Amino acid sequence: MRTAAPPSALEAGVSSGGPCRVLLSGGLDSSACLVWALEHFGHVDAVGFDYGQHHRRELKAAQAIAELLGVSFRIERIEGLRGGLLNGGRMGPGAVVPGRNVAFVRAALAMAPRPSAIVLGATAEDQAVFDDCRRYRMDAWELALGVKILSPLVTKTKEDVILSLGEHRSRILDLSWSCYQGGSEPCGTCGACVVRAQGIERAELDSTDSRGGRSGS
């Protein structure tokens, strides 16, 4: 767990005692959340989840990004999720794994030490497809679970996310991965790859920086 600068105004408004815990998938959105958390919180750690996804390659990316940013990272196993990506879904509603985000939040909350806040990388673009990326869902989880859930990207596009990476942008573009397929290279055609490529184009970045369209959330 990284210890950084004195508490920010945001951190002062969150219950004290535990780290700010980032749900780190190894893709662009969660990586941007980690960068954001380090700017706003003095104590930050991160967790990734093995839930039977074909693209477990993302967990190696998450580990590499956590190391790049000097943050403690753990992988937790989650059983029982079904559908969507786990059944070969690749685009739009077909990629939805029901209950995935709330399962991640519950698992992150159960880890010791108990976090003071949990950061989830839901974006504006996610909300059209993924119901559990909508803020009203997170508000309900906060009430039910008794933990602050932060969603700093919830009004952001993929272009915004890429630009928010700041000095770490080039390295995170190189390291990140969330292509839905399980191969050694990104497929370039699944929903995550397509959205990432569009974000890079809109951010006017050289596509070679992404090493063939490594993509994700």
Give the secondary structure arrangement, pairings included:
Layout lengths: L1 E2 L5 H4 L7 E4 L4 H13 L2 E8 L6 H13 L2 E6 L22 H11 L6 E3 L15 H11 L2 E3 L7 H7 L4 H7 L15 H12 L15
Parallel strand pairs: 2-3, 2-5, 3-4, 5-6
Antiparallel strand pairs: 1-3
Keyphrases for this structure?
217 residues, alpha/beta, Rossmann fold, six-stranded mixed sheet, disordered C terminus
Description:
It is a single chain. By secondary structure, this protein is of the alpha/beta class. The protein has a single domain, classed as HUPs (Rossmann fold, 3-Layer(aba) Sandwich), CATH 3.40.50.620. Helix content is 36%, strand content 12%. Strands 1, 2, 3, 4, 5 and 6 form a 6-stranded mixed β-sheet that branches. Strand 2, helix 2 and strand 3 form a beta-alpha-beta unit. Helix 2 crosses helix 6. The two termini are 22 Å apart.
Put the structure in a nutshell:
Helix content is 36%, strand content 12%. With 217 residues, it is of the alpha/beta class. The chain has one domain: HUPs (Rossmann fold, 3-Layer(aba) Sandwich).
Second CATH tier, the architecture: 3-Layer(aba) Sandwich
- What fraction strand? 5-15%
Q: Helical proportion?
A: 25-40%
The top-level CATH class is: Alpha Beta
Superfamily at the CATH H level? Answer: HUPs
- Structural class, by secondary structure, is alpha/beta
Query: Main β-sheet, in a few words?
Result: 6 strands, mixed
